Amino acid sequence: MRRPLVAGNWKMNGSRELTRGLVAEIGADLPNDCGVDVVVCPPYVYLDMCSNLLESQSIALGAQDLDTHGPGAFTGAIAADMLLDVDCRFVIVGHSERRSLYGESDERVAEKAAVAAERGLIPIVCVGETQEEREDGVTEEVVHRQLDAVIRGAGIKIFPQALVAYEPVWAIGTGLTATAQQAQEVHQLIREQLSDASAEVARDTRVLYGGSVKPDNALGLFTQPDIDGGLIGGASLKAADFLGIIKAAIS
Ligand code: PGA
After folding, report:
1. Most CB contacts within 10 A, which of 26, 105, 192, 249?
2. Cα torsion at 142, 147, 150, 156 (round to 10°)?
3. How many C-beta atoms surround the C-beta of residue 141 within 10 A?
4. Which CATH superfamily is domain 61-156+192-202 in?
5. Ligand 1 mean position, distance from CA 73 (Å)
6. Boundaries of every domain in the chain
7. How confident is the model over 192-221, as pLDDT tens digits?
């Protein structure tokens, strides 16, 4: 059985005040052994603070990105070991915003996934097609290429510990969620692709859906056979919405 996971990607949002409030509110209402892994991914500068706040909570900490170098002369970069030092367990790699705004190639994403896994972090590997690619009918090809780069570059061995997050770019922050059926179709393709490398890995790897997940559409998505939880952007910044989504993953 794949244990559901819900991760909140705060992106470049937050403040000390928001971090304190959000973590306290989520923690207060989260049932202790709820059967769902809950992760929050604040911006780098709030990680250490969050790690202290989470000490008595069953919420894990994740980062939104990492650099592949070790410590050294890499101004502005954050190494995997630094993330581990502030108790991060997860790290998002290849988010579409990193790919489109910061020019991260499939190979770079694979490199990040490899370094993260090697150092003992759990990568959440994001894949997903743009609106144009969906309209051109190349969704399957794009997602396959992005995941293939990671399987080849980092090795199938990083799974099932690593997760995949299918995030159609056209659904991110737009309010346009993929229908449960559209999402399930791609999740099934992802699982088949993993299965080509290893049936066991395909069975055990958690594949999350992301893109305008809200409390009212989460249940429909999470009850699909190949959807094992969600990567949540906007709705993870409101405790009530994030909790509503977690509850949908419990049921
Ligand atoms: P969204 O973002 O939930 O705001 O659409 C999801 C993501 O980018 O991870």
Report:
1. 249
2. -150
3. 12
4. Aldolase class I (3.20.20.70)
5. 32
6. 61-156+192-202
7. 999 999 999 999 999 999 999 999 999 999
